[in-house]
Amino acid sequence: MLLLAFVLAGRGLGVSGAVAYAVAYAVGMRGAAGDDGGSAAGTGTWLLVEVAGLLVGGALSAAAAGRWRGAVERGAATGARARLLTALGGGVLMGVGARLARGCTSGQALTGGAQLSAGGWTFMLALFAGAYLVAFLGPRRLRRQLA
User: Fold this and answer.
1) Among 20-29, 30-39, 77-86, 101-110, which stretch is predicted with the lowest mean pLDDT?
2) How many CB atoms lie within 10 A of CB 70?
3) 61-71: per-residue pLDDT in tens?
4) Are residues 92 and 120 in the same domain?
5) Residue that finishes a domain, picked among 13, 45, 71
6) What is the pTM of this model?
7) What CA–CA distance (Å, rounded) separates 28 from 110?
8) Last residue of some domain: 46, 71, 96?
9) Nearest Cα to 14, choosing from 72, 6, 75?
10) Burial degree of 56 (CB within 10 A; 0-12, 13-18, 19+)
11) For residue range 70-116, what is the model confidence (pLDDT) as tens digits?
């Protein structure tokens, strides 16, 4: 998919800028979020098309697999409320981190890594190290605090 994005669109993958672009566009600051002059191939337009494709593709995949239902996926020892709160908190932290790092996980790790960017590879290694650390230290403490 990444190679196809480079070949067809001339850009890699990454979606964190889509929200910034949509907000900037909505308040009349088109050029502030990375749109290159309002062309159909502009960065902001590409991001919005990419995110729309993710949503439509995810919905079609869920429907085709028979998984289109309202449910909270969670472990046996985790309540629905705790699962939703941790998912929301993780999403907010990832969003803030993506804006601070000037790129999301897919933009930094996948696209940056494919371009052999030192920052992309550093991010990928730090991401996995942090995930392993949280997986090792976090679950018991989180369950006690959120239960």
Assistant:
1) 30-39
2) 4
3) 999 999 888 88
4) yes
5) 71
6) 0.58
7) 31
8) 71
9) 6
10) exposed
11) 888 888 888 899 999 999 999 888 888 887 877 777 788 888 888 89
